[in-house]
Structures are given as structure tokens and as C-alpha cells.
Specification:
Layout lengths: L3 H8 L6 H4 L16 E5 L7 H12 L5 E3 L5 H17 L3 H9 L1 E6 L1 H14 L7 E5 L5 H5 L11 H13 L1 E15 L18 E4 L13 E8 L2 E5 H15 L7 H14 L15 H4 L1 E7 L2 E4 L8 E5 L16 H6 L12 E6 L2 H4 L10 E6 L1 E6 L6 E6 L2 E6 L7 E15 L31 H8 L3 H4 L13
Parallel strand pairs: 1-2, 1-3, 3-4
Antiparallel strand pairs: 5-7, 5-17, 6-7, 8-11, 8-15, 9-10, 9-14, 11-12, 12-13, 14-17, 15-16
Helix pairs in contact: 4-5, 4-6, 9-10
Organism: Gossypium raimondii (Peruvian cotton)
EC number: 2.7.1.107
Catalytic activity: a 1,2-diacyl-sn-glycerol + ATP = a 1,2-diacyl-sn-glycero-3-phosphate + ADP + H(+)
């Protein structure tokens, strides 16, 4: 066992002094610059009691002021304050503060929704060198941690477990990943206001946005725009319906959802009781994607084309990372010749392309349990557009990075539009067990690329560009002050 004095000496590598963290503090610098200074953000309401226990342990081994409870302090305010302080100190010639800023890493403990919140905040800061993020799996799905090698099981909360995780953070490598901008336009609800969202229950990463392109046909006649972003996936159909049922049940009976294994078991049961187990086995479901939506993709900038969706598809996933619904990879690993013949590339997380996959029913989803199992690969694209008109259903279910909602569909001569497009990148920390692959990593599989598949903004109108430039935490991920973070997945 390592002695406390030795452990404390090693933990000093992660230590940040108070004069950087607390305004007006006396400038007391440690004897040496830490090699891996960290800021730790913990959703104390995630993982039952684990979040609170983890918070206490981190505060006992690090400076308590560098460990933040997201239930008490919002990450956007914390990071704006710290970076303002670092900037001021650097202007005064403080080399220690400059070294902290250059090597700073962030740890976020919670579900995928919590991790996405932090990534949104960092995106909005628009820093020249944004700090990379390591994720601690405290949620139900934990797709983000699993994608980058941090596992999907709840971690230990004792000092030794925390120390081991910090060591992993210090040795982790940086990896860029794409971020995705999402815009939804729909006519204002007939009852209630649109801002705040009510009577809709949209995810907290989608917010009302009043400025839209002057050339947009839906910019008039009472249409409202909601926008936000995501890093892992957007899905629609049966998987989102199951997720919505799970979240609804958890809101009604939070006391029953204190254990990760119980939560996952409940999720599976709901999948078998939502009417999706045997739907579409012998005939198309009445709510298959092709009947309720027209789908378009943009493979080359400025060129939309219709995407044919088989009538049997009851769920569609637009996937950025190789982890969905607790660690499955719906895209799989296609044979090189097969994806070259179809003009596809390996599913890199930093190539400006999103993978679009379809599923028929829950039984079809079970193919993910088999070696090399995958869904129906539909396309890869720079952008995806869903157009809904009056049709076979009055609602569907949608989900962004674990946050589901029930989406009304047109009942009259109107249109609901959901559009997804590439927007910038953020930095993640990856362990040697990382499942994600970079197109810049020599060890990743290679393929021929079309240079037109870049993510430039050429062809967008000035208003659209302005809309994208404003994407970020302050606008798109600003959670209401009264929001209960225990509902984040």
C-alpha cells in the first residue's frame, strides 16, 4: 500500500492553488508547477449515493475549491471566472498561471447529459486551446465514457480508486471529436408559450431561438425555432420511446432508480412492453420512419438529396460515436470492399460525417449483441434533414444524447423540420481502451476519402452562419436555475 505522504506528494501533480480558483485570494504558489492540473465537476445526484461519495473523496485529496458540485455551481459560471482570472494573471506575467492554463484537464462525473453539458460550456468559451475532458461513468448508459475507454460501470469512490482515475487522466491522450448542431422548427403550440418551452417538454439542450434566416420559408406564420447541439447521437422512433418511458417512470418514482443495475434492468423491461418487441416482423409498423418523415442528406456541401428509408425501419439513429444504448455500435465494422463499393468510410469521430443507421424493432436491435452485429446502414453525411407533414401519426419520440421527448407532429397543413449539421470540434481524453477512432491516427483503419466531404460553411447564408456561430453553452445548453440535475441521464 502507498503511504499517505507519498500519495499526497503524487496528488500534488493535480493540485491548483486558491489564488487561481478564488477571486481576491493571496497569491501563494506551490513549490512546483503541477504536471496535470485538473478541475473536477460532479453531478452529486448521479448514481444514487455514488455522486455524493465521489464528491467528498475528491475534495479530500485535492483542493476542495477545484472540485465542484454541479447541483450548487453551474459550470459556465465557474469556467468563465477561472479563465478570466488566468487571463488577468497571464497579463501580469504570471508564468505559473500560464502553465496551469496550458496543461489544464477537466474531469466530469455524471451521466451522458452531464458530460454533454460540460462540453457545451467549453465549446461556448471558444478558447484557442480548450481543455480536454475525461468522463466518469455515473449514469445509466454511459456512452461517452465507454467510447473513450473510461468504462461504463460505476467507479469506486474510495481514495485509491480516485487516485487510480487521476493517474489515468494524467496518462490519457487527447482526441478531437465532431460536434453537431441541431435546429428544429415548428409552429407554436396552440396553448402555452414557446419560451420557456411549455407546454412541450423538449430536452434542456434545445432552446427557443428567435433569430432565423430571412430566406427560410418557415420563418413566418408563427413558426418557432429551437436549437442546440450534441456529441453522440440523435435518434427517433422506438429507442427514443423506450427512453421516454424510462425517464417518465423515474420522474414519478425516483426512489426506485438508485442503482445502476436496477436501472438497466428496468430499461430492458420497458423495451419489451412498449409494443416494439414484435412490431414490423411481418408487416410495416404504422409508425415506421418512412411514413412520418421525408429524410434528406447532404453528402456534398450545398447539395441535398433524398434518402430512401425502407418501410420496415421503425427507428433511426444519427450516430457520431461508436457507443449507443450502453455501449453497442449500431454501425459495426463493415468489410472494406463493401463500404468502398457503397462510397462509405470507416466511422471516424473527427471526419465531419455522421453515420445514419436504421432498426426494424427491438428484436432487430438484439443483433447488436452478436459479434459484428449492426443495424441497417443507411448513409454517412455532413448534414441530415427530417421533414414531417400531416400523416400516419400525431407524434413521435426523439432523443438527443440520452435526453428523450415526445414530439408532436403536424395535424394540419404545416411542417415540422429537424436539421442536423456539423459544427466544430471539442477535445476528449482517451485511454488505451478507447473505442473511438480518429482519421488522423495511423493505427486507425484507412479508406479513400472524398475531399468534398469537408465541413466548411461554404454555401450557407449569412444568417445561417450567424446562427451556427452562436451555437454554444450560453445559448444552447443553458439549463434553467430550477432544473433538477438528477434527471440528467
Amino acid at each position: 500500500m502507498m503511504g499517505d505522504s507519498m500519495l499526497n506528494h503524487i496528488l500534488s501533480e493535480y493540485y491548483i492553488p486558491n489564488y487561481i480558483l478564488v477571486p481576491e485570494s493571496e497569491a501563494k504558489k506551490p513549490p512546483c508547477v503541477p504536471s496535470c492540473p485538473v478541475l473536477v465537476f460532479i453531478n452529486s445526484k448521479s448514481g444514487g449515493q455514488l455522486g455524493g461519495n465521489l464528491l467528498s473523496t475528491y475534495r479530500s485529496v485535492l483542493n476542495p475549491n477545484q472540485v465542484f458540485d454541479l447541483g450548487e455551481r453551474k459550470p459556465d459560471k465557474v469556467l468563465h471566472q477561472i479563465y478570466a482570472t488566468l487571463g488577468s494573471l497571464k497579463q501580469r506575467g504570471d508564468d505559473f498561471a500560464s502553465a496551469i492554463e496550458n496543461s489544464l484537464r477537466i474531469i466530469v462525473a455524471g451521466g451522458d447529459g452531464t458530460a454533454g453539458w460540460l462540453l457545451g460550456v467549453i465549446s461556448d468559451l471558444k478558447l484557442p486551446h480548450p481543455p480536454p475532458v475525461a468522463t466518469v461513468p455515473l449514469g445509466t448508459g454511459n456512452n461517452l465514457p465507454f467510447s473513450f475507454g473510461w468504462g461504463k460501470k460505476n467507479p469506486g469512490t474510495d481514495r485509491q480508486s480516485v487516485f487510480s482515475f487521476l493517474e489515468q487522466v494524467k496518462n490519457a491522450t487527447e482526441m478531437k471529436i465532431d460536434s453537431w448542431h441541431i435546429i428544429m422548427r415548428m409552429r407554436a403550440p396552440k396553448e402555452g408559450s414557446c419560451d420557456p418551452i411549455g407546454p412541450l417538454e423538449l430536452p434542456h439542450s434545445l432552446h427557443a431561438f428567435h433569430r432565423i434566416s430571412q430566406t427560410d420559408k418557415l420563418g413566418m406564420d408563427g413558426y418557432h425555432t429551437f436549437r442546440g447541439g450534441f456529441w453522440n447521437y440523435f435518434s427517433m422512433g422506438m429507442d427514443a420511446q423506450v427512453s421516454y418511458a424510462f425517464h417518465s417512470e423515474r420522474k414519478l418514482h425516483p426512489e426506485k432508480f438508485r442503482n445502476q443495475l436496477i436501472n438497466q434492468g428496468t430499461y430492458i423491461k420497458l423495451g419489451c412492453t412498449q409494443g416494439w418487441m414484435f412490431g414490423s416482423l411481418f408487416r410495416p409498423s404504422p409508425t415506421n420512419i418512412a411514413q412520418i418523415a421525408k429524410v434528406k442528406v447532404m453528402r456534398k456541401q450545398g447539395q441535398w438529396e433524398d434518402l430512401k428509408i425502407p418501410r420496415s425501419i421503425g427507428s433511426i439513429v444519427c450516430l457520431n460515436l461508436p457507443s449507443f444504448s450502453g455501449g453497442f455500435n449500431p454501425w459495426g465494422t463493415p468489410y472494406r470492399k463493401k463500404f468502398l463499393d457503397r462510397g462509405l468510410t470507416p466511422p471516424f469521430v473527427d471526419d465531419g460525417l455522421i453515420e445514419i443507421v436504421g432498426f426494424r424493432n427491438v428484436l432487430h436491435g438484439l443483433v447488436l449483441l452478436a459479434p459484428n452485429g449492426h443495424g441497417t446502414r443507411l448513409a454517412q453525411a455532413n448534414a441530415v434533414r427530417f421533414e414531417f407533414k400531416k400523416g400516419a401519426a400525431n407524434h413521435t419520440f426523439m432523443r438527443i444524447d440520452g435526453e428523450p421527448w415526445k414530439q408532436p407532429l403536424p395535424a394540419d397543413d404545416e411542417t415540422v423540420v429537424v436539421e442536423i449539421s456539423h459544427f466544430g470540434q471539442v477535445s476528449m481524453l482517451a485511454t488505451p481502451l478507447c473505442r473511438s477512432r480518429s482519421m488522423h491516427d495511423p493505427s486507425s483503419p484507412t479508406a479513400c476519402y472524398n475531399e468534398d466531404n469537408n465541413s466548411s460553411d461554404e454555401g450557407d447564408s449569412p444568417d445561417d452562419l450567424e446562427e451556427k456561430r452562436k451555437f454554444g453553452a450560453a445559448d444552447s445548453f443553458k439549463f434553467p436555475d430550477e432544473f433538477d440535475i438528477s434527471y440528467l441521464s
